[in-house]
Each structure stands twice: as C-alpha cells, then as structure tokens.
Amino acid sequence: MEILKKRIIEDGRVVGKDILKVDSFLNHQIDVRLYNEMGKEFLELFKDEKITKILTVEASGIGIACIAAQYFDVPVVFAKKTESSNLDSDTYESQVYSFTRAKTYKIRVSKRYINKGDRLLIIDDFLANGKAVLGLMDIISQAGATLAGVGIVIEKGFQEGGKILREMGVNLKSLAVVRSFEDGRAILD
Amino acid sequence: MEILKKRIIEDGRVVGKDILKVDSFLNHQIDVRLYNEMGKEFLELFKDEKITKILTVEASGIGIACIAAQYFDVPVVFAKKTESSNLDSDTYESQVYSFTRAKTYKIRVSKRYINKGDRLLIIDDFLANGKAVLGLMDIISQAGATLAGVGIVIEKGFQEGGKILREMGVNLKSLAVVRSFEDGRAILD
C-alpha cells in the first residue's frame, strides 16, 4: 500500500537495531485519515471472505479494527490482556509471549462474542514473531469458529511471524512489509 | 442520546451492586454503527470548540476516539498505561488511581504529540471517579495546551467524577448518565 509505505519512509524512525517507531501516525498518535485508507484496503483484500466479525487485541489494534469494521459493516471484538473484574468469567483464554516485554500474558475473550458460525478477520497493527496472532487463532479454534484472514498494517519481514503463519496456510495480508534496516532507514518490500 | 440509552437498558447487565456490563456493544464487543452515531453526537456537542486533537487513554477509549475523530477530522492521541520500550522517553506523565483494580498506574504521552496551541477533546467510554480524566487533564496542563472539552459515553452519575469535573468548570458532556441501579436494572437520567 503505497501511501502507507511512503509514510513509513518519511515519518518512521529507526531506534537501535530493529525498532521501528511509527508512533507519530500509527500507534500513539493516530492519523485517522490514513486509518481510513487502510480500512478500505483491508476491505479490498478480504471482501470475498464473508467476514462476520473483526477480532483484535488491546490496545493498539483497536483503532484500526474499528475503522476497518465500518467498511465491512461488522462488529469488532477485542481480546483483553489483563484480568479484570469487569470481564465475564466465562472466557476463552490463550497465553501469549511478548518479546518486547519479555514475559507471558493472558488474552481473553468472552464466550458470548465468538460463535461457531463466525468467520473472523484478525486485524493488528504489527506482526513480528506472530505470538499475538497465534493466541487469537487459538481462541477462534476453541470457539469452533473460522479464521477467514489476518490483516496486518506493518509486518516485520525479518522476523518469523509471517513465515510461520503462511506455512500454516493462513490467508495473511500485510499492508507494508519491512525487510530490513540499513543506516537507520527502513527498507520496505 | 436516546439510541444509546435504549441500548443500555436493553443490553446492559448489572452485576453485583454497581457494575454495569455493556461489553456486548461498548467495551469488549463493539457495535461500530452505534459508535458512528456516538461520534456524530460528540461532534454536535463540541463543534464550536475548535478541537485540534482528541485525547484518550488505552484501551477501551481508543475505538470511540478514532471513530469520533473522523467527524472532527483531527488526529487521536492515546495515553499509554504501561512502561514500554517502544515509547519515547521524553514524555508527560501522570499517576492515576484505579478503583476497579485497586492500584495506581502511570499514564504517559510523548511530548511530540501535544503542543501549546492544541485544543484537546478528551474522550473516554466511562466516567466514574474521574481519575483517568484528571490524569489526562494534568498532562494537557503540563503541555501548556488547552482542554476544550470532555466527552464521555456513559457517566456513572452516582459516583463523584462528574461533580468534581463540573465544579472545576470543565465542559463535560456525557451521552448517557446512569443515576442508580434498582432491582438489577440501570436507571438513566
């Protein structure tokens, strides 16, 4: 997606060896116009998949999931990361290891909101090691629902998540793929 | 806002003494059509305030902030709750006490994304004790920016947040106010 790639090159900042900071438009400050273009692109990519619901995980996936859901005209469900007294006790759960935070956390979705007949599109802002997507897929599988696709804003192509998911046969589409970093700049596919 | 009040009465579930669960449409599963109606209503309420940016806090404020931002045609900034290696070290910070979780957490916003000239609209899904909004106001004040308004989806009118903010002169508007619970049902203003 050219408009996104251009934005990553212009406004993304590379910190250290392999951290791409896109917090000026993607995951801290949000350029909602750009989100709308991304939402339309997700619809274009998955329009034949009969999506009934979009699934994401808090926090930074929620915005793009909601904006994209307008084009699909379906609800969003976001998995919760922390044990909260306000969450239903009757939940599907999965464990996710975060390399960024070097710890395992639990993600949970109330059993009320994913059903057998659902065809889910997982949307998230980043794909690196794929652990969060695999956790969401585990939850979809527990619910007996169907994974219809995975839409990612930025895939870190030098990490293993994309390879793992594609080898599993997952219908994965990324709007931009970062292949490597050279001289403090992101090199995109 | 009638459509929201109707939805709270029909689909909200009261758990225990004072927990209103609206996770079927507001903060776990999201009814994006309803979010759009709420976004338009926020524009109607704050259209004369020359809003330059919408500020919220992760996680459940992000969706409605993004949807509303489309109508204002401004960016969203969401405060982060956890210390993250991906967040800029140069941040405004504030402490927020959560009664739900019975602990204090830190919220942070990069100094890059709130500026002196900004007129901010704070948007959040719930207002109870007002601690999260007060933390966001503290950050706006540190940045030397202007608080132009606070838009809340559901205010718990029997808790003190609304009273505190209105007495401070804050331009606070709530789309629905829960006055009390009676026989397991929410009583709305």
Mean pLDDT of chain A: 94
CATH topology of chain A: Rossmann fold
Oligomer: homodimer
Task: Give the topology string of chain A: H per helix, E per strand.
Answer: HEEEHEHEEEEHEHEE
Strand order of the largest sheet of chain A: 5-4-8-9-10-11
* Percent helix of chain A: 25-40%
CATH structural architecture of chain A: 3-Layer(aba) Sandwich
Radius of gyration of chain A: 16 Å
Strand content range of chain A: 35-45%
Report the total helices of chain A. Answer: 5
Low-pLDDT stretches of chain A = none
Q: Total number of β-strand segments of chain A? A: 11
Brief account:
The structure is a homodimer of 189-residue chains. Chain A is α/β, with parallel strands linked by helices and 189 residues long.
Structure description:
By secondary structure, chain A is an alpha/beta fold. The first copy, chain A, has one domain (2-188): Rossmann fold, CATH 3.40.50. Chain A contains 5 helices and 11 strands; from the N terminus they run αβββαβαββββαβαββ. Chain A has helices at 2-11, 32-46, 62-72, 131-142, 161-167; strands at residues 13-15, 19-21, 29-30, 53-57, 76-79, 91-98, 103-110, 119-127, 146-156, 172-182, 185-188. In chain A, the strands form 3 sheets. In chain A, strands 5-4-8-9-10-11 form a 6-stranded mixed beta sheet, with helices on both faces. In chain A, β8, α4 and β9 form a beta-alpha-beta unit. In chain A, α2 crosses α3 (62-72). The longest helix of chain A has 15 residues, at 32-46. Chain A starts with a helix and ends with a strand. The model of chain A has no long low-confidence stretch (mean pLDDT 94). The interface between A and B is large, with 42 and 42 residues. β3 of chain A pairs antiparallel with β5 (76-79) of chain B.
